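STRUCTURE:
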């Protein structure tokens, strides 16, 4: 989880900068209409970020930190979705605390807990 937090906070810090966040938002909008922009955005930002995150998830799986049947691609989408939702839809800041909440929800918060009385 610490490795994923590092990757996610670096991306959030970059996109939180006034010169990068709006540019990235504009590029995503333009990519919907221009295949060349979409390919360049994917090649320069999306694919490397995806590969880095999936590599960290795969390493955790090999080390036994994740269940053997843990769906890495789905986990990546679950991790990315809330960040892009904030960046592109609600335009709320993607803070380190928010990233911690997302990671906790994925790795701990969704599992059942024993009932205590």
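SEQUENCE:
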């Amino acid at each position: 989880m610490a490795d994923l937090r590092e990757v996610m906070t670096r991306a959030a810090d970059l996109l939180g900068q006034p010169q990068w966040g709006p540019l990235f938002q504009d590029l995503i909008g333009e990519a919907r209409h221009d295949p060349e922009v979409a390919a360049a955005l994917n090649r320069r930002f999306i694919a490397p970020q995806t590969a880095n995150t999936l590599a960290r998830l795969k390493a955790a799986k090999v080390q036994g930190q994740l269940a053997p049947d843990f769906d890495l691609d789905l986990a990546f989408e679950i991790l990315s979705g809330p960040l892009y939702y904030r960046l592109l839809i609600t335009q709320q800041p993607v803070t380190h605390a928010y990233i911690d909440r997302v990671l906790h929800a994925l790795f701990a918060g969704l599992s059942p807990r024993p009932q205590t009385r």
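REMARK: Residues 25 and 88 are 6 Å apart (CA to CA).
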